[in-house]
């Protein structure tokens, strides 16, 4: 019988490989959905116009629909189709594409250096969100507050969250909308016009996506280095190689393992016909390890002729912030490697509960003694 381990499992990859070996699309009774696990089927699911990011009957999760968090969620381009998806994307892409790599590096390193021994949670969650806040024009004295509010908002969106977290998410959504709307340096290199509430919501969406995805990328990179002392030593002397290492982490042990697509009209994926109302779990972390796409895919290797990853999506809904996330993660890890013993003192305490993300719980001996 085919089974699927969650991303928080210590090693979910054997279950992914078992699914992938059977190829195509498979229906799993327990979760009650179809699973796409090989690269070809995952790519097809991302390109299929009838596969939407939200179910037609529930555009906003019912758990947050009646409140500010639900209103904000409903305006996010990544949670919409058609013009509601394309208009914010057309507006924001020029801004994201024009971000200066040296400015991203400067902002990241400066915020990381604020603490001699940064807690892993700060390096993973707080620093990246503060960098995005700075790029959006947030006053420096408000960055930490904005990062905390973003964390509360994200926690309330988690289907595994509590009612207390959802209530906190509503309050955080209100606070974020009011604050971000007052930033003086909102995207000026954008094209066209966009309603202010849609613009502000999608800037908050950039903050919230950064919160989990970049945290998982940084945390899993820390674990990769902790498990490979020789690589850690090599990169400490050759920091220009960190960017490549981050790209391999994104492929090999990514921060996001899956996403869902909801069938809006009859369509075909591979040899399987799907009907309206069906749900497809798009197992991107499995596709990343498909040998048909990447030779020797199960091994962590920096030297690759080509490195293909579905971790930030593909097709019309691919994440426009990939370069930004990889850049921030690269400079965080580079900064941590300069603290010679930091990565070596990490304690791994499993993974945060999530249906789609793989974000490690990390503490540091240095942090405890700071």
TrEMBL record:
GO terms for molecular function: heme binding; iron ion binding; monooxygenase activity; oxidoreductase activity, acting on paired donors, with incorporation or reduction of molecular oxygen. Transmembrane segments: none annotated. SUPFAM superfamilies: Cytochrome P450. InterPro entries: Cyt_P450, Cyt_P450_CS, Cyt_P450_sf. It comes from the Bacteria. Coiled coil: none annotated. Its cofactor is heme. Keywords: Heme, Iron, Metal-binding, Monooxygenase, Oxidoreductase. Belongs to the cytochrome P450 family. This is Cytochrome P450.
């Amino acid at each position: 019988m085919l089974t699927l381990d969650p991303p928080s499992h210590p090693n979910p990859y054997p279950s992914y490989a078992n699914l992938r070996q059977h190829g195509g699309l498979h229906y799993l009774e327990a979760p009650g959905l179809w699973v796409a696990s090989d690269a070809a089927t995952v790519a097809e699911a991302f390109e299929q116009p009838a596969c939407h990011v939200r179910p037609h009957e529930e555009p906003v999760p019912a758990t947050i629909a009646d409140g500010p968090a639900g209103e904000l969620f409903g305006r996010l381009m990544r949670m919409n189709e058609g013009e509601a998806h394309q208009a914010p994307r057309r507006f924001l892409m020029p801004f994201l594409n024009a971000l200066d790599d040296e400015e991203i590096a400067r902002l990241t390193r400066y915020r990381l250096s604020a603490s001699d021994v940064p807690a892993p949670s700060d390096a993973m969650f707080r620093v990246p969100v503060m960098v995005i806040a700075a790029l959006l024009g947030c006053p420096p004295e408000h960055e930490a507050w904005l990062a905390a509010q973003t964390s509360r908002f994200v926690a309330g969106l988690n289907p595994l969250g509590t009612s207390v977290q959802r209530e906190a998410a509503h309050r955080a959504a209100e606070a974020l909308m009011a604050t971000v709307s007052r930033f003086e340096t909102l995207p000026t290199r954008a094209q066209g016009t966009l309603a202010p509430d849609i613009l502000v919501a999608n800037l908050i969406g950039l903050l919230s996506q950064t919160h989990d995805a970049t945290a998982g990328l940084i945390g899993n990179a820390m674990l990769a280095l902790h498990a490979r002392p020789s690589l850690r030593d090599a990169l400490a002397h050759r920091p220009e190689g960190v960017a490549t290492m981050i790209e391999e982490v994104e492929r090999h042990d990514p921060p996001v393992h899956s996403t869902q697509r909801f069938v809006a009209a009859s369509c075909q994926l591979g040899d399987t016909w799907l009907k309206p109302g069906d749900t497809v779990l798009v197992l991107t972390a499995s596709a990343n390890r498909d040998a048909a796409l990447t030779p020797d895919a199960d091994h962590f290797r920096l030297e690759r002729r080509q490195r293909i990853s579905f971790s930030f999506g593909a097709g019309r809904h691919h994440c426009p912030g990939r370069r930004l996330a990889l850049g921030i993660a690269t400079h965080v890890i580079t900064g941590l490697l300069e603290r010679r013993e930091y990565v070596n003192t990490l304690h791994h305490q499993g993974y945060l509960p999530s249906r789609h993300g793989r974000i490690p719980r990390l503490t540091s001996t240095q942090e405890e003694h700071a």
